[in-house]
Amino acid sequence: MKYNEVKNKLKVVGGYDRFMKAKQNVLIAILTILIALMEITGIPSVFFVHVEIADIEPYYFTMMMNFIIIGIISFVYLKKLCPQWKLGFTKVGLVNGLKKYGVIGIVVAFIGFVAFYVGLRPFDKHPSIIKVLVEGVIYYIGVAIVEELYIRGLLLNLIEKIFYNNKNQTLIAVVLSSVIFGLGHILEVMNQPMIIIVSKVIWMIGMGIFLGTVYKKSNNIWIPIIIHFFINVCALPYCFSSFNGYADITLYIVVPMYIVLSGYSLFTIKCK
Asked: Please, where are the H alpha helices in 42-168?
């Protein structure tokens, strides 16, 4: 049987649309996994990028090149294979969204900054200005864009489509994508005590729920990207401290804050 005949028969019984949606979901799942692996491993840039400038760790140049490669691959992949997939890279609602959620993001980031500052020995490594700029600002622009792209833009939307028959599909998608986001940060603290590992996961899940809620409420991915970046930048005291780990006072402040914030975020989704 020819392809066109099969296609026409599927259209008659309504199976063609379901087939195309399933195909798109599989393609998005493949891209999501690919980006995640590239972010975790640094492949392929780790094999050919090794730049040494001042006191900047070569790792950061490797990862920034990988972010560029991820961006190119994602753009071409989505344009050619999934042109109907909407990520929310738009100007529409950006200003209003920042007015509505930006203040919360600033408050959260500031509290995080204070928690890190009082709990660590900030900047006792005496980094150069260019090191702070590259490792603490430019690098985190890439982190925010890439993580929001595949966690919120791809994974969250994918889960929501999978649960399209469930009235709580958005709630489920936000929670599941945030749990994956949280578990993905275990690698950062693998050599730390269990209490820090658990705290980090809870903290990241809470952050993910907040960012996921902002994304679904605004339908604009730039807003969680900007908030994500600002939160990361406010962790600069941790990035350039010789203290290996998280101080108790930091966890006592940050973890409860994100638990409360995630609870409020889930409530707003449930009551939409």
From this structure: 58-81, 94-119, 129-133, 139-147, 157-162
